[in-house]
């Protein structure tokens, strides 16, 4: 077991919270700008179903880029790895998450990986279904299975707020459409993508998803295999190589676990065979990752030797 109790975890939260003053809440999606910079909460979910937590864990946050891991798992199940990786690559970029730079300089305009926005848009494009409603419904059902919570839904306000301001993602989508990587209506794709990013849940649900990935795609509580082991392995590998964007190398050295962040301040961690982690801390660093969330993971990793290598 990690911390012996939620009290022990609370002490680490208090320590990590000190650095929220150096962070900034994301406001390029206006609805996210309402978050409280000083919030920090964490839940850790163990395979035996027990959970420890600290902070205001009832607060719901939108998944934002954390959803990219889940949509990737779904399309890998929909199409298989060969089809998916013909359309999106496997390499880290070292660039910011919304950068267009590499698309222009690569011989083929295929996005380098599914965790940057360009790659995630290609992944969302691959979600099977005859309409946006059906495709989003399939994704949401999968999230509800992962959390074992049929009430998980999305925040309409956050989705609309992003849709209205997503011109950079529009530009990325038009670019990859022009190069034949996607072939659907860009506005429809953005509607689906912004709803995906606006799926919301609390830290407990996030930690529950983490433990499913940690246990190779099997929900250890219900015993259901929610995705093939190979799909969970691919997703965890992307979390290690690209999960924290252009901070993934430093994160791997300092913390060393598969994790995925989002601009709402969420981090989902999956410590293989051990537990899942859900964090919410909306103050972000200059790379778009939760500043106090990373500090908290650093403290946990140091204290409890979480690094994989
Ligand atoms: O596409 C966007 O800009 C957001 N919906 C998600 C970006 C994000 O979470 C990047 N994370 N650090």
Task: Report on the architecture of this protein.
This protein is α+β, with helices and mostly antiparallel strands and 309 residues long. The chain folds into 2 domains: 6-63 and 203-211 and 229-304, DD-peptidase/beta-lactamase superfamily (Beta-lactamase, 3-Layer(aba) Sandwich), CATH 3.40.710; 65-197, Probable Glutaminase Ybgj, Chain: A, domain 2. 46% of the residues lie in helices and 11% in strands. The chain is built from 13 helices and 10 strands. The chain has helices at 6-17, 67-79, 81-87, 101-105, 117-125, 132-147, 156-165, 167-178, 186-197, 203-214, 229-242, 248-254, 291-304; strands at 24-25, 41-45, 51-54, 61-62, 153-154, 199-201, 259-261, 266-271, 275-280, 283-284. The protein has a 5-stranded antiparallel β-sheet with strand order 3-2-9-8-7. Strands 4-6-5 form a 3-stranded antiparallel β-sheet. A two-stranded antiparallel ribbon has the order 1-10. Helix 6 (132-147) runs parallel beside helix 9 and helix 7 packs across helix 9 (186-197). The longest helix is centred in the middle third of the chain and has 16 residues, at 132-147. The radius of gyration is 18 Å and the shape is globular. It starts with 5 loop residues before the first helix and ends in a 5-residue tail after the last helix. The mean pLDDT is 95. The structure holds 6-diazenyl-5-OXO-L-norleucine. Substrate binds at residues 65, 117, 162, 169, 193, 245, 263. Keywords: Acetylation, Hydrolase. InterPro entries: Beta-lactam/transpept-like, Glutaminase. One of its GO terms (molecular function) is glutaminase activity. Pfam families: Glutaminase.
